[in-house]
Amino acid sequence: MARVLMKGCEAIAEAAVRAGCRFFAGYPITPQNEIPEYFARRMPEVGGTFVQGESEVASVNMVYGAASAGTRSMTSSSSPGISLKSEGISYCAAARIPIVYANISRGGPGVGAIQPAQQDYLQATKASGNGGFEMIVLAPSTVQEAVDLTYAAFDYADRDRNPVLILADGVIGTMMEPVELPPMKTDEEIAAIKASKAAWACTGHKLDYANRSWIQPGQWNTQIMQAENEKAAALYASWEKDVQVEEYMVEDAEVIITAYGVSARIAKSAVDICRAAGKKVGLIRPITVHPFPYNSFDKINYDVCKGVLDVEMSIPAQFVHDVRMGVKGRCPIETCLCSGGNIMSREAVLKAVDGILAK
Amino acid sequence: METNLCVAGFGGQGVMTLGKFLASAACDATDKNVTFFPSYGAEQRGGTANCFVVISDGMIGAPLGDVMDDLIVMNGPSLSKFLRTLRPGGTLFINSSIVDEKNIDRDDVKVVKAPVTEMALEMGNSKVLNVIMLGVYVGYTEVVPPEVVWSTIEHKLGSKPKLLPLNRQAFETGLKLGREQR
Known about the structure:
The complex is a heterodimer.
Chain A: E1 4-7, H1 8-18, E2 23-26, H2 34-42, E3 49-52, H3 56-68, E4 73-77, H4 79-95, E5 100-107, E6 113-116, H5 121-126, E7 136-138, H6 143-160, E8 164-169, H7 170-174, E9 176-179, H8 187-195, H9 222-237, E10 245-248, E11 255-258, H10 261-276, E12 281-286, E13 288-290, E14 307-312, H11 320-327, E15 333-337, H12 346-357
Parallel strand pairs in A: 2-3, 2-4, 4-5, 5-8, 7-8, 11-12, 11-14, 14-15
Antiparallel strand pairs in A: 1-9, 5-6, 7-13, 10-12
Helix pairs in contact in A: 1-2, 1-6, 3-4, 10-12
Chain B: E1 2-10, H1 15-29, E2 33-38, E3 48-56, E4 68-73, H2 76-82, E5 86-95, E6 110-114, H3 116-122, H4 129-141, H5 146-156, H6 164-180
Helix pairs in contact in B: 1-4, 1-5, 3-4, 4-6, 5-6
């Protein structure tokens, strides 16, 4: 397969189309405008539907509707727009509707800065809406990974009947990099996927009250509500098997850098520079940030490890909360942070590593 | 081997296109890794625009490095903004039509001069200044083989064949000027 140079946002959209996504609704916001722009051009070519909604709330609810009818559906936005969509996402989680959405995040609360940041970690992984639902959250660190994870996201969503989030940032969204694209699902394959949802989706039932599909984002009966929440909790607990992580030169490391997304690729190149200079440094990079690869931190040799360095484009640090739960107090944790739209500097990472090694 | 390039100029001078052509050529015809990262923000016509291209034999960590190996500046404000990011021994390519050499306050970098604004006007189309500069850069550095870059330009302009002769002339003229200053 020939590689093509693609922008992260466009690559995410093309991967979705190839995975059989045939409905997209969204609303403009930097730095993810190339996602709706690409879908607007591409959807008519494949017989899909693109809608620019009148707002974020409208577009996420259109996706909720389309996915309820069994169609692979997607929306995307950036930080404040994602907050607006959180009501719809929570409804999808409650009604157990599989959707995929992407957050090409920016820097800070409120409108924040429009430049790249990783300022939405806790929202993405812990509470993307009310009610305590959870989602698989995928964090690509290259454009190729953004393609592969988006393609897989639709399978996770359908398998679990649950929303899946692609958590990226303005660098991954706007940069161009060579990618190899996955195969295009055929119309027959897409029809088969839709048909497989007939047991629950509104795919056109006759007036049959006993077996009719229900799309229900809540329950009046407390017992049923508790039972639904228990079922959801069992689903979330089953995701242990879906953990994806890159462990790079961990065994003998005196410093472990841990990072996700764009920070992780910058950190990985810092590891290579350190190793070339004879410094024993390794990397733990969660690819799924939820479920989080806590067990990877058990592979650190704490007899030699002087510290874990949390590298993230967020102030205050957020990812570090999960890192703490992985390290469990077995060695000190330090942070290397930037925020507000500033991009992580490799020099800063190297300096922080040297600071730990000098201790 | 990794090359970090920053291209900077006025919005409208085609700096993004220059970077994209180079990145596309590296993607199309080499097995190197390449990234293109555009600056974005509250940009406006007449304001500054810049992009970063990294071409590497190995994995690319930062698509926006701390230190540049090469810097192309198409206007005066970009010189003052980016000159300090160029590593000692790095190469500075200036649009000498409008960038004043006297403002280069470093003597530890190589300077390649190309009056691309004037050259483009002489060719009858002010818009090709970026393709001339791309030629200069490729001619000087040979970071990607020139014929590969040309076939990428040819492909990108496929829907506008009328523009090909002018762009060919622009690219060739730039290549020659770049090679002469090696």
